[in-house]
Predict the 3D structure of the following.
Amino acid sequence: MPWPIDALPYPFELGFMQRALVAGVVVGVFAPMIGTFVVQKRMSLIGDGIGHLAFAGVGAGLVAGVSPIWAALIVAIAGALGIEWLRSRRSASGDLALALFFYSGIAAGVVLVSLAGGLDANILGYLFGSSVTVNDQEVATIVGLGAVIVAAMLVLRRGLFAVVTDEDWSRVAGLPVGLLNTVLAVIVAASVVAAMRIVGLLLVAAMMVLPVASGQLLARSFRGTLWWSVAIGVASVIAGLAASRLWGLAPGGTIVLIAAGVFVLVALVKRATIPKLQAEGAGL
């Protein structure tokens, strides 16, 4: 498939790197975007829990002989709705609901994968990401899901912001809190599945949280945090893919390590500059 970016220089001059770049940049946009709302809701680990559920979907897809991506999407959405149902009825706390689905999902995934023939390179690609092996169909799926996710976030951002900030106030204001929470859960599930071929199911939560952590240090508002997070997510993907090609590193892990490194750097700079700014403000 010819890309309009064929003229890119090394390390993105080859087709497999261009496919990885397109899919990775899309993930770098929507993962931190949804992560901004998830972190604000204080459910940072939801991506991790749904990722383990999606692994069960991958195993189910392999056993049934259907696309693992679409099977994972169905299972992840069902699990996300289950988590939200438990949380909204307070029959289990958010963390307990996550733990319940977390361990059930990974256990079911292990059993189903063993029935399908055990772990192989393809399974490891779902767990840890394998961006340089994505094909045209997978890129199209990631781009399509990403476009839907970003569009939904932009349309519903005001209502979602109100809900993740203060549910009680949102109910008083007449907002459909239950519906918005359900939509948020579905979007998170779709984000996990769309990102699993790039950073892997075990690392996808990091791309939802680490850029947001850096964005919170750099921004003074929720909107600023969102756009800083997206910028850092995209930059981490590009730098991670380039580093993986240059030094033969695992792409998914490299992307996440760069995002973590950015957070450490921002935190250190922030810590060093705050006393200086306070001293200047005091006229010292």
